[in-house]
Backbone:
C-alpha cells in the first residue's frame, strides 16, 4: 500500500501516543518551579512575621499605642517591613538566577550582581514601606483617636511584615524587563508623591522640584533616597536592556550590532546622573546638582533624537513616540521660558513624567519584540518535535 493510501489516523500517531516534546517538559519544569517559588515566598513571609512579632512585642508590651504617629504601631510596622523585605527580596532575587530565562545573570561580574540585587531589593522594600505608612495613616484617620494594646499592635506589625515579605518574594522571583519597568514607575511615583505630601514647606512648589530635597527632614531624605535609588534602578535596567536588545539583533529585528552596547551605556549614564541629583541636593552643591539634572536631560534628548538611527529596525510607531517625547520636552521648556506660562516646577514635573514614561514604554516595546521572537523559535521547535 502506498503512503498516499494510508489512513489519516495511522499516518500520524495520536497526541496520547506521541512522546512528550521539549515544550511539554519545559512546561512541567516551569510549573514545579512556580510551586517552589510560592512555597519559598510563604516561608519568607512566615519568617518575617515571626521575627517582627518578637521585636514588636518587646517594644509594645505593657503600654497602649496609636496606629500612626512618631511612636506608633505604624512606625514600628514600617521599619519592620523595610528591614524584612530588604532581606527577603535580596534572597529571593538572588535565587531567581536559577529560573528559566534568568541564567544569563550568573555570568555577570560580582559588582554588577551586587548592584543588581541591592537595587531590586531596595526598591521593593521602599515600595512596601510606603504602602505600610499609607495604610496605617489611613486607618488612624478612619478611627480617629483609637489606641491599641500590645497584643493588637504586635499582631498588626507581624501581619504587615508577613504580607509584605510574601509579596516581595514573589515579585523579586519573577523579575522581567517589563516588570522592572512597572516597578520603576511605581517606585518613583509613590516616593515622590509621599515626599510631596509630607513636605514641611507647603510652598515648595513655588520654587522648583528639587526644593523637596533641601529641608533636611524625613520628606527631603525620602526624596533624595528615591532619586538615588531611581538612578541605580535605571542603571540596573541597562543589564536587561542589553540582553533584550542583543536578542533582537540576533533575531534580525535591529540592524546595528552595536546598538545593545550603545543604548545600555546611555542608560548607565542617565542612571548615574540621576543618582547624582540625589547625592548632591541643592543645599549641598547647586553646581553639581544642576549639572547632573541638565546632563541627564540632554542625554535623554540625545537618545530620542538618535533613535531612528541607533534603534533602526524598531516599529515606526516607536519613533513617533520618540518624536512626541522631544516635542513635550522642548515645548515644555518654551512654555517655561520665554513664554512664562509654566513655572519651573511644572516643567520639571513634565520632564520627570516624560523621561520615566518613555523608559517604561521603550522597555515594553523591547520586551514584547523579544518575547515574540522567543515564541516563534519555541513554536518552530515544537512543530519539529511533534
Residues:
Amino acid at each position: 500500500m502506498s503512503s498516499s493510501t494510508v489512513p489519516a489516523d495511522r499516518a500520524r500517531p495520536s497526541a496520547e501516543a506521541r512522546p512528550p516534546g521539549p515544550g511539554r517538559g519545559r512546561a512541567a519544569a516551569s510549573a514545579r518551579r512556580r510551586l517552589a517559588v510560592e512555597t519559598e515566598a510563604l516561608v519568607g513571609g512566615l519568617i518575617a512575621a515571626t521575627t517582627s512579632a518578637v521585636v514588636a512585642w518587646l517594644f509594645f508590651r505593657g503600654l497602649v499605642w496609636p496606629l500612626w504617629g512618631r511612636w506608633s504601631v505604624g512606625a514600628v510596622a514600617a521599619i519592620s517591613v523595610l528591614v524584612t523585605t530588604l532581606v527577603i527580596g535580596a534572597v529571593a532575587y538572588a535565587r531567581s538566577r536559577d529560573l528559566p530565562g534568568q541564567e544569563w545573570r550568573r555570568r555577570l561580574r560580582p559588582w554588577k550582581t551586587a548592584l543588581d540585587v541591592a537595587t531590586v531589593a531596595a526598591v521593593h522594600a521602599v515600595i512596601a514601606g510606603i504602602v505600610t505608612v499609607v495604610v496605617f495613616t489611613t486607618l488612624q484617620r478612619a478611627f480617629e483617636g483609637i489606641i491599641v494594646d500590645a497584643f493588637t499592635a504586635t499582631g498588626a506589625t507581624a501581619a504587615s511584615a508577613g504580607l509584605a515579605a510574601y509579596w516581595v518574594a514573589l515579585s523579586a522571583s519573577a523579575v522581567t524587563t517589563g516588570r522592572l519597568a512597572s516597578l520603576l514607575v511605581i517606585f518613583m511615583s509613590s516616593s515622590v508623591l509621599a515626599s510631596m505630601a509630607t513636605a514641611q514647606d507647603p510652598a515648595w512648589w513655588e520654587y522648583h522640584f528639587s526644593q523637596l530635597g533641601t529641608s533636611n527632614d524625613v520628606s527631603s531624605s525620602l526624596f533624595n533616597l528615591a532619586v538615588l535609588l531611581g538612578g541605580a534602578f535605571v542603571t540596573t535596567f541597562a543589564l536587561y536592556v542589553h540582553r533584550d536588545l542583543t536578542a533582537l539583533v540576533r533575531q534580525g529585528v535591529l540592524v546595528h550590532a552595536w546598538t545593545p552596547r550603545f543604548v545600555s551605556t546611555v542608560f548607565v549614564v542617565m542612571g548615574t546622573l540621576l543618582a547624582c541629583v540625589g547625592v548632591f541636593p541643592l543645599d549641598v552643591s547647586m553646581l553639581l546638582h544642576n549639572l547632573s539634572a541638565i546632563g541627564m536631560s540632554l542625554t535623554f534628548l540625545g537618545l530620542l533624537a538618535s533613535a531612528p538611527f541607533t534603534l533602526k529596525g524598531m516599529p515606526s510607531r516607536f519613533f513617533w513616540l520618540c518624536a512626541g517625547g522631544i516635542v513635550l520636552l522642548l515645548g515644555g521648556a518654551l512654555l517655561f521660558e520665554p513664554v512664562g506660562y509654566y513655572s519651573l516646577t511644572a516643567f520639571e514635573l513634565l520632564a520627570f513624567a516624560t523621561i520615566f514614561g518613555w523608559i517604561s514604554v521603550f522597555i515594553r516595546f523591547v520586551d514584547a519584540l523579544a518575547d515574540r521572537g522567543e515564541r516563534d523559535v519555541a513554536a518552530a521547535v515544537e512543530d519539529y518535535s511533534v
In short: The chain has two domains: 34-175, 177-199+214-371.
